[in-house]
UniProtKB/TrEMBL annotation:
InterPro entries: MFS, MFS_trans_sf, MFS_Transporters. SUPFAM superfamilies: MFS general substrate transporter (SSF103473). The chain crosses the membrane at residues 21-43, 49-72, 84-101, 107-138, 150-170, 176-195, 225-246, 252-276, 283-306, 312-339, 351-369. It comes from Goodfellowiella coeruleoviolacea. It comes from the Bacteria. This is Major Facilitator Superfamily protein.
Amino acid sequence: MATTTKVQPRALVRASGGPRYAVALAVDALGTGLLRPFLLLYGVTVLRLSAPVTGTAMTVGIVAALVCMPAVGRWLDRGARSTVVAASMLVRVLGVALLLATPTGNIWLFAAAALFLGIGNQAWPAAHAALVATVAHGRERDAALAAGRALRNAGLGVGALLATACLAGGTTALQALAAVTGLAYLAAAALTWSVHVRTRPAATPAGDSAAGPAPRMRALLAGNVIYVFCLNVPEIALPLVLVTQLHASPAWSGAIFVANTVLVVTLQVPVTVLLSRLSRRSVLALAGVVLAASYLGFLAATSLAPGWAAPAVAAVSVVCTIGEIIYAGSATALVTALAPAHVLGRALARFQLSTGFGLAVSPAVITALAAHGSAALWGSLTGATLLATAAVATEKEQERGSAGVAAERSTSHDERDQPLAGAL
């Protein structure tokens, strides 16, 4: 049994869709990093909208965009791959164009722009995962998905840094950033389109139990709603706690966010490869345990003396990021392993629905819990995460009698349980 964890970059790029697709991902992420963190600021500064109205329009756009996911899933199951990824980028070009065309004070056009940007942002993860699942298999696919996430985080981080440096230019700079973002999306869509990855719709024999709908994965989908809260902890929960409860310098929040990005970029692939010795479901359960432990660590850190609390929170944030990395490296990979080929798109779309919903509600839940103190915030997150972990860990036997067993039978033993071989 191969146990090496060495990753060869050339093989990883090939498994991720090839060099052109990797460049497309980097360009797309760079453009997203230029605008997405500052979309609220664009509405307030450039369009002169109030912060609550702008935030509401953005939230409504994100939630409404989830409605497109069933259609995306069906499109993927008809064999489309790179076309759907390119479409997710092109629809964001339309969103940026609407944003640039929005006159001052017009909330409706801004909401429409947020909707199209949201559609692209929601459709992209499922489409990207389906494309990678078409060109790579087994644990190589898991590493390729991890590499895509690392590359995307690097692009987002660089884009955000460039945008921050340009903010001194005021409204003109924000408009220029939006225009550059649109061009980046357009270039990324063209590169993705040129890859021409497509698969024939999977044929299933008559009477095959795998010919039914996508596996239900009820516990996995419900648990994922809780798991994804970890993605908003560095951006929402920790700045809120550090500034409003601990009265620490905002620089701590910035340092934690930068550290989170660097750790994800550098460790996502190595950690995913290292944990390939375990089953994907076991790794996902481990992620829940690590995240719950980090939430308890935050609770303990916030009870320390003022001079020690902020550094302790920063230290615990590293544990939380490790949990996030473990989660991100196993969750989508588990869905791609469970779903039969002919319903992979619908399974990924349902998973993205749970992810998008969790990301949409987590800011409101986190801020509401934080208003009742650290114990309410971190205690509730710990309890909910442990419940989600237990549900995910115990769902395995329930799925073996349905579509999940057919999916696992169609997946080789090496693909499910063995660590990455030297080919990576």
